[in-house]
Design a protein that fits this description.
single chain; mainly alpha
């Protein structure tokens, strides 16, 4: 597997095209594909351009509000922790005052060393969408807390609370039952299957990939187990499926889909050669055009105007993500 150069899997080399595109794509292409050091003058220029981008400034401003309303559904792309994670993935860090401010708000609410988001616990017989959006409760949850910790690390936060949160999450994955929400509308299936939630596992893995000790831990293996179980069962698991909506080239990584999963799972050496990941890789290879470029197949309307929220034109950012995935899998 490692003998094949990742570029050989593309119909054409898109690097020059990506380097002539958006500041965030240029930044990540240089750092993640070309291995430019962070102090390289072109990297610094791209990051400065990124910080000044109008669309980025708008995302910073909306994220700075940090959960102005209580969460009623978790698949809403405007939720603050999704915005924070996207800003960090694009290349912004706490060296930017506004990002440092967001990081401070993200760490303000915690419980048992786990970061919380604003949400209420659904009462029996009431789905989360019926929750009070104005309620001022803050809770740590298995498919939220890992994302907050991940965003903080990606943004360069150096605070022992963040590392402690990651290891606390790992403690919840001492078996493949994992950290589970136990809401009444999924509890019945959990009691029957005795397996964790694939979305919680995916977010945990995303976090674990940033910490060397956790990247090779039993917790990481256990967090992958529900994802593997879901793939093998070929059935919906806790409302997560693998239908057409799963097989989408879509960003930001808000919910359970193939691109998100491929981006996370290819970070782990213990998954090299796994047939589930190989299926994702083959899908990515098959999704390129004749120029080795990729186009979003689904989009969040709130991101309209960004290159990855356009289903008609090739997206430099989606292309960079796919190239990075292929590089991790096939190597140089």
């Amino acid at each position: 597997m490692g003998e094949a150069h990742w570029l050989s899997k593309l119909h054409d080399n898109p690097i020059t095209w990506m380097m002539e595109s958006t500041p965030y794509t240029k930044f990540r292409t240089m750092t993640d594909l070309l291995d430019y050091p962070l102090n390289h003058k072109d990297v610094i220029t791209a990051r400065n351009e990124l910080e000044l981008s109008a669309s980025v400034r708008e995302l910073i401003n909306s994220t700075s509000m940090w959960f102005p309303k209580s969460v009623t559904r978790h698949n809403i792309p405007t939720l603050s922790h999704y915005g924070f994670a996207a800003l960090a993935e694009l290349g912004l860090s706490v060296s930017v005052p506004e990002i440092e401010y967001i990081a401070g708000k993200a760490m303000y609410h915690s419980s048992n060393e786990l970061f919380c988001i604003r949400q209420t616990m659904p009462e029996k017989g009431t789905m989360p969408s019926k929750a009070d959006a104005d309620a001022n409760e803050w809770h740590a949850m298995p498919c939220d807390s890992p994302l907050v910790s991940y965003a903080l690390i990606m943004a360069g936060v150096e605070d022992e609370r963040v590392i402690k949160s990651a290891f606390r999450i790992a403690e919840h994955w001492q078996s493949d039952r994992g950290w589970f929400c136990h809401f009444f509308f999924v509890e019945g299936q959990y009691k029957k299957l005795q397996i964790g939630c694939p979305m919680a596992g995916l977010q945990a893995l995303q976090l674990f990939s940033l910490i060397p000790e956790l990247k090779v831990s039993e917790a990481a293996i256990h967090a992958f187990a529900p994802i593997k179980f879901h793939w093998e069962s070929k059935k919906s698991l806790y409302f997560f499926g693998r239908s057409k909506k799963f097989w989408t080239l879509k960003y930001p990584f808000v919910w359970y889909n193939a691109l998100y999963m491929a981006d996370v799972l290819t970070r782990f050496d213990f998954l090299k050669g796994d047939p589930l990941v190989q299926e994702l890789i083959e899908w990515i290879i098959d999704s390129q055009d004749e120029q080795g470029r990729y186009t979003s197949t689904s989009m969040f309307m709130c991101y309209k105007g960004w290159d990855f929220a356009d289903k008609k034109l090739c997206s430099p950012w989606i292309t960079m993500l796919c190239c990075r995935i292929l590089r991790r899998w096939y190597g140089d």
